[in-house]
Amino acid sequence: METVPARRGKATPLKQGQSIRIINTHGAQVVDTWAFTAGMLTEFMSMEHTRATLTKMVPRVGDGLYTNRRRKILTMTEDSSRGDHDTLMAACDSERYILLGVKEYHDNCTDNLFAAMQGLGLTPPECPCTAPGYLDTR
Ligand SMILES: [Zn+2]
Questions:
Q1: CA of 84 to the centre of ligand 1 (A)
Q2: Where are the domains of the chain?
């Protein structure tokens, strides 16, 4: 088990059939989650495509999460969160904090995604919309 410090990110390679459990140990902050297809970072988990495939706004246990090529990349297998998963809001970024009036650099999920992926030697083409939860690959 790895602990991700607050306001930081972590990227972990998964093979088909592996699971990842994401636990918010304290606080009420969301845990932004992305998934990219190995070897093809232009295919990634897409909330737009997931909503269209599920024909609902919020995935539930047993639902698949789909890529921008409409292929299932993860399955939500558990969910102990207290609220609904947001599939609409973009990940926070420096621009959002500037709009909120923050004058200094503020850690943000978009920069955390890129830093975490760089830790694996990877650079995603963009920061897709995110989804938190307990997920299994395909
Ligand atoms: Zn954020």
A1: 16
A2: 19-137
pTM of the predicted model over 0.85: yes
DSSP-assigned states of every residue in the chain:
---PPTT--------TT-EE-----SSS-------EETTEEEEEB-HHHHHHHHTSSS--TT-EEEBTTS-EEEEEEE---SSPPP-SSPPP-HHHHHHTT--S----HHHHHHHHHHTTT---SS------SEEEE-
pLDDT in tens, 88-117: 888 999 999 999 999 999 999 999 999 999
Question: Could you list which residues have their CB under 5 Å from ion ligand 1?
Answer: 92, 109
